[in-house]
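Check my protein:
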Amino acid sequence: MDIIQLKCFISVARTLSFSEAARRNYVSQSTVSRYIRDLEKEFGVKLFERSRREVELTNEGKLLLPYMQDVIDTINKASSVISRLNSGSGGRLRLAYDAASVDYPVKCLSAFTRKYPDIAVDMISLSGSEIAGALNSTDYDFYFMLRDMLPDNDSIASLVTSRDNLKLVVPYDFEVRGGSVKASGLKNQRFVLLSETESPILYMEIMDIFRTFHFSPDSIVEFDDVRSVFMAVSSGMGISVLPSQLVKNSPVRRIKSLEFGEIETDLAFVLAWRKDNSNPAAQLFLKTVRSEESGDDEDEYII
């Protein structure tokens, strides 16, 4: 059965007229008769008693009518929701992000909310380990994260959204020659870092910097949120290493960032999602993100 069959049945049941049902549904009377015969054959019952002068619903027809009406109502509601969503007037989007990539969702969301202001957006910050686990569920539509955190999973797709590099974060009165940091300037420093639990890949990258400089810090203090790291550096508790965009947008004053003069500290951030995501709002968000990005084809990964 299809929608037009159901509509014709409902029209005949409401008007008790095959000709009026044909007029309302823009089909011929013979087509209405065929649709009714097909429904009667499918259900194995007679739906109407017909004579030359009148049409009446059978008991089976009366029983079927409200169910058919519910089907049509549901289809109409679904059509309305999709239409509203595509015009930017409804729907819900669920986003997760890790602490290291907090700056990058802002750019994507800014473009999206301008275009679709009536789509509700839920956002939550997850630790790196939590995001890795959440990717195997359907709790969120998208995940902003470091590319190296992506699991080896055929059901996950990703798109590189941005690239960054690590900077040394120091109090504003920290002295350094030449504007960049060398190994000799770090060996006796206390480090204040975002915890390994909160961002394991970022933590690993920082440990790699220490190994490259051939030293191990005597003291490391860890915090589970970026703001606490900035506050600790600003108060003189130590120095830190963070992505440059986080430093640039820090709400905490009395800090500055310095380049590593001897090594490369590149990072890549991605937007990840499950390939089986069927949320229409998610499709609109992905379309918006892609339209905002102008990277090469090599920046898109299907994992």
Observations:
- The first strand starts at residue 48 and ends at 50.
